[in-house]
Write a structure and sequence with these properties.
It is a single chain. The chain is of the alpha/beta class and about 220 residues long. It is about 35% helix and about 20% strand. The protein has an eight-stranded mixed barrel, surrounded by five helices. Helix 4 packs parallel to helix 5. The longest helix has 19 residues.
Length: about 220
């Protein structure tokens, strides 16, 4: 995985190419994936699960639609840290759409880290949060050979992990930062892999960009 992250960084420096994409959930009931593909989208990340009890009811339809349109696609898991172990949630995610295969069109799963009703950091200390993420990440890696992408905004990462650098050499970074520029990259990552730059995409859901060209995106999918 370190080689993939380094390759993405090198691509960004040399050509500064980006590929548009988007991420969606059941809030986007109907998505015209063919129009997204023809409009320039290269990838889509689709909500699959939350915690250990919830599966997104639109995941299968969205996944099939994205595949049929020729988009590179993958699933994401909305984390409930501390409610159950990271291992348990990774296992649930893998059993309900979050798996990976080296077919060239499947992204490694993404772990969505943000706040919900349980408070900013789900009642965990920074060290406990880092340990929980590592438990999820290591479990996912042991079952797929890939480390999951990590999604968060800079403020959350600073507050809830103490700006941990524990994942910078293994897990691709998906940074949520709604601005005209990416800003400061947290956690000692050399670069970002995907930037969620807006909560409104013309194709539905949130607007993203992959940090590289088509070859780099395929490399992320193939491992």
């Amino acid at each position: 995985m370190r080689s993939i992250i380094v390759a993405i960084a090198a691509t960004a420096v040399s050509v500064q190419a980006t590929i548009p994409g988007f991420d969606i959930s059941h809030y986007q009931g109907t998505v015209n994936f063919a129009a997204a593909k023809s409009g320039g989208a290269g990838f889509v990340i689709i909500k699959a699960t939350e915690g250990t009890t919830y599966t997104d009811p639109t995941f299968s339809d969205h996944y099939i639609g994205a595949t049929n349109a020729g988009l590179i696609r993958g699933g994401y898991h909305f984390a409930h840290p501390g409610e159950t172990t990271g291992a348990a949630q990774a296992t649930y995610f893998l059993a309900h759409g979050g798996g990976w295969s080296g077919d060239g069109i499947t992204l490694p799963g993404m772990l969505d880290l943000e706040s919900e009703s349980d408070g900013e950091c789900w009642g965990l200390s920074t060290s406990a949060m880092v340990a929980w993420i590592k438990d999820f990440s290591d479990t996912y890696h042991s079952k797929t050979t890939r480390y999951p992408m990590l999604y968060f905004n800079p403020s959350w990462w600073q507050t809830c992990t103490g700006n941990s650098n524990a994942f910078a050499s293994t897990n691709p970074l998906v940074l949520a930062h709604y601005s005209s520029s990416i800003g400061t990259i947290p956690g000692s990552w050399a670069t970002w892999t995907i930037w969620q730059y807006s909560d409104s995409s013309s194709w539905g859901g949130d607007a993203d960009r992959f940090n590289g060209d088509a070859a780099g995106l395929t490399k992320l999918a193939t491992g």
